Amino acid sequence: MKIINKTLNLEELKLDPQSRIIGEIMGLIHIFESKGLKFTTYQAEFDSGWGKDDIWFKRKLWEISTIVVNSAPLRDMKVLDCGGASTIFSFYLASKGCHVYTIDIDWRKQGIVENADFVSQTMGLGMHNLKGNMTQMPYENNFFDRVFSVCVLEHLSYKEQDKAIKEMSRVLKPGGIMALTFDYGPFAHGGKYEDIRRLNERVVIPSGLNILENSDYLENAWFGEISGKTWGVLFLTKSGYSKRLLTCSRPNSRIAAFLKCDLSTIKSMIINILIGLGIKKDSFL
Q1: What is the spatial distance between Cα 40 and Cα 50, in angstroms, rounded to a whole number?
Q2: What radius of gyration, in Å, describes the C-alpha atoms of the chain?
Q3: What is the C-alpha to C-alpha distance for residues 129 and 114, in angstroms, rounded to an integer?
Q4: Alpha carbon separation from 131 to 103, 105, 116, 141, 184 (Å, rounded)
Q5: What is the DSSP-derived secondary structure letter of residue 227?
Q6: How far apart are alpha carbons 99 and 18 in whole angstroms?
Q7: Among 42, 121, 245, 251, which residue's Cβ finds the most Cβ atoms within 10 Å?
Q8: How far, in Å, CA of 19 to CA of 185, rounded?
C-alpha cells in the first residue's frame, strides 16, 4: 500500500516523479513570465515576490506535485479545482490536457476569475472559470473525474466547511478521486485540523468517501522547530469499499508539541482556536 496520506516532506521534491513535475511547472511559469501573464501566490493574490528559494513556494510545489503524482489526472479528464482560480496548479492541469473547471469567490477581490479567463484564452487552454461558492456549486452529480482543493478548507467556517466537503463529494464521479491539502497540527490556521480525530470528524465522515491507500496517517516533522504546524494532504475516493477512518501511529504529537512551546506559541494556539470558533480577532486583542 502506498503512503500518500501524510504531512509535508520537502525532501520529496528532489525525487522522481515529483522533481519531473516541478520541472514542468517551472517551465510553465517561465512561459507565463515571458508573456506577461499572471498567476496567484499561496495567498490568492498576484505577487511577483515569489522566488524558487522561497520556503512558501517550495511548500506549494510539494502540495501540487504530491496531488498530481497520487491522483494521476489524465488528458481529457474533467477536473475541478475549488478555490483555484488563477493558480499555477489549475493552469498546469489545463496545459496537460485536462478539462479544468475552477470555482472561486475571489475573497481578496483581485480579479482572479477574470484573469483565469484571460490566461485561458491567451494560452488556448479552454478552461471553465466560475465566480461562485464551493458550498453551493451548479455542477451536476457525478460530473468530475477529479476534485481538488489546495489549502482552502481551513479558511472556511465549520458550517461552510461541512457544506463544501459534501458538495465536492456530490460532484465527484464513482471511482473518482478527491485530493485535499490543508494546514495541519495543533497550532495550524483556525485550529480546524489539529489532529487525526478532527480530520475524521470534519472531512472523512461528512464526505461519505473512502480513504485511498494508507489510512494510518504519516505525520512527518513539524514545519519549523517544534512549531506544532505543518501542511497535510489527504486522498479520498468514491468507491463501494468498506469505510475506514484515519489513524496515526505517532502518539500524543499534539501534547508533545504543546509541552515544548513557549508562551508566545501557546498564545498563538489560543488565538487560532478562537478564530476557528468564529470569534473576530479584534474582539480579544
Answers
A1: 10
A2: 18
A3: 8
A4: 6, 5, 11, 19, 27
A5: -
A6: 22
A7: 42
A8: 26
pTM exceeds 0.90 for this model: no
Q: How far apart are CA 262 and CA 202, in angstroms?
A: 29
Map grid coordinates 480579479 to a residue. Answer: 111
Q: How many helices (H) and strands (E) does the chain have?
A: 9, 8
Q: Which three cell numbers stand for residue 199?
A: 480530520
State which amino acid sits at residue 158. Answer: Y
C-alpha distance from residue 76 to each of 73, 99, 174, 210, 213 (Å): 9, 6, 17, 24, 24
DSSP 203: I
* pLDDT tens per residue, range 182-229: 999 887 776 789 889 999 999 999 999 999 999 999 998 766 544 668
Q: Give the C-alpha separation, 23 to 64, whole Å.
A: 12
- Pull the grid cell for residue 41: 501566490
pLDDT tens for the chain, 285 residues long, are 899 999 999 999 999 999 999 999 999 999 999 999 999 987 778 875 566 667 888 999 999 999 999 999 999 999 999 999 999 999 999 999 999 999 999 988 999 999 999 999 999 998 999 999 999 999 999 999 999 999 999 999 999 999 999 999 999 999 999 999 999 988 777 678 988 999 999 999 999 999 999 999 999 876 654 466 889 999 999 987 657 899 986 644 444 444 445 555 556 656 665 665 667 656 655
Cα distance between residue 147 and residue 69, in whole Å = 14
Do residues 210 and 236 touch, judged by C-beta distance below 8 A? yes
Q: Is residue 229 classed as helix, strand or coil in its secondary structure?
A: coil
